[in-house]
Amino acid sequence: MTTLHWFRRDLRLGDNPALMAAADSGDVLPVFVLDPALWAASGAPRRAYLLASLRALDEQLDGGLLIRRGRPEQVIVDLTQEVAAEAVHIAEDCAPAGRRRDERVEQALDVPLVRTGSPYAITPGRLRTGAGEGYKVFTPFRRAWQDHGWHSPAPDAHTARGRLSLVDAGRSDDLPAAEVPDGLTLPAAGEEAALDRWAEMLDGPLNRYDTERDRPDLDSTSRLSVPLKWGELHPRTVLHDLARRRSIAADTFRGQIAWRDFHADVLFHSPSARDTSLTTVLPEDSWAEGAAERAALTAWSEGRTGYPLVDAGMRQLRAEGWMHNRVRMVVASFLVKDLHVRWQRGAEHFMAWLVDGDVPQNQLNWQWVAGTGRDAAPYFRVFNPVRQGLTYDPEGQYVRRWVPELRDIPSKAVHEPWKLPRSAAPDYPAPMVDHAEERAATLEAYQEQRRR
Fold first, then answer.
1. Are residues 399 and 161 in contact, defined by beta-carbon separation less than 8 angstroms?
2. Can you give the pTM of this predicted structure?
3. Average per-residue pLDDT for the chain
């Protein structure tokens, strides 16, 4: 019996139950379909990283990964006929667009589309409240999530490769060009690199995660958001390793995996959350429009706002395709609540640059900061970019790394360069807005909406 395993967001061999289900059914043709619609919608950093990850996966398969370009509903159907496959195996895609695509493929196939597992510890939509609805608040979701539990990891990469009998379907289609933006350095791609990063985390930074995870000046986060997005590592593997650690730090890290599942679950139940606020917080005329919006977005996206922590974060994004989570919250709050630009504009910019750009995580985290999502921060919570810098980058090391105009300013003074003589940082812009004034305007607009 011949089967297809259609790789999507599971670019790994280890802990891949869908791949093992295919292997248990017979000889396997491993295939990745490069969908032109998804390719066109992806930012340049994600395109380049995807190709690197596919090369790593192909190497693990000894050159056996077949890559075809085209619409999945046509490519997958053609391949099943070409190799006389009796089933197509996938890990379930729970995002709205992915579900629609899989329904189209399933309708076009004459063989079963077998779904096994998903990119999450618990497949979105599975947990329900007592009323049979999706959870809207994180804390009860996490309790249900923890009580439900998850399967143990599937076989590791070495064992999985030994169980695979591969089908050769000929030469892959040529991959498109994917230039890395100037000045941007991608992280190492592939399952092996992801496992190495997780091992490094376990060896030290995890022990300090609860106290250092908000510090962008310290390398205390896992950076697993990238391999988790691409499925080079499954969260079940992470949770299995965390179960051996009994500490506040390990439980804090486990909570971040729960948040990831929660956001995917919210999007499953509320697909409109991709583009639409789940809660209205301001009158429509409160948002910047036209030239004012464009000017605000330009200064913010280029890291030229005059607020050092904000600018450092935006420059890190362009240099690494990644940004520290605490800084993501600060820059998002600044765009929405200081510059009065809709969260959708910021989410779009992040998706264009983030290597870990993932719709449920990106959109729902933006909605969290904007106060419009499920269990979000209240809209009247406005991050003070100076206070955030002084608290979480106390010596200014993070700012000085990414904002060279401020490298000669010592210690915490770097967070308020406008208090120094202009000669201290002549090339750095003055603050584009007064935070106190914009915060007051934000709160007034919020109260106006409440009065309606």
1. no
2. 0.96
3. 96
Based on the fold, state whether residues 133 and 81 are members of the same structural domain.
Answer: no
Q: What is the pLDDT of residues 322-350, one digit of tens each?
A: 999 999 999 999 999 999 999 999 999 99
Q: Which residues contact 417 (CB under 8 A, 6 or more apart)?
A: 308, 406, 409, 424, 425, 428
Other beta carbons within 10 angstroms of residue 390's beta carbon come to 16
Residues 225, 348, single domain; the answer is no
The pLDDT tens digits for 311-327 are 999 999 999 999 999 99
Mean per-residue pLDDT for 244-262?
96
182: in domain: no
State the SS3 of 36-49: HHHHHHCCHHHHHH
Say if residue 167's pLDDT is above 90.
yes
In a domain, 176, yes or no: no
Domain assignment of residue 27, given as a range:
2-118
Domains held by the chain: number: 3
The verdict on 340 and 388 lying in the same domain is: yes
Mean pLDDT score, 400-408: 97
Q: Are residues 130 and 245 in the same domain?
A: yes
Q: DSSP readout, 182-239? A: TT--PPP-SHHHHHHHHHHHHHTGGGGHHHHTT-TTS--S--THHHHHHTSS-HHHHH
C-alpha span between 175 and 52 (Å, rounded): 11
Q: What integer pLDDT is reported at residue 292 of this predicted model?
A: 95
Instruction: Give residue-wise pLDDT tens across range 220-248.
Output: 999 999 999 999 999 999 999 999 999 99
| Neighbour tally for 299: CB within 10 Å | 19
**Does residue 278 belong to any structural domain of this protein?**
no
Strand order in the sheet with 66-69: 66-69, 27-34, 2-7, 87-90, 113-115
Q: How many CA atoms are closer than 13 Å to the CA of 31, on its beta-carbon side?
A: 32
Residue 166: inside a domain: no
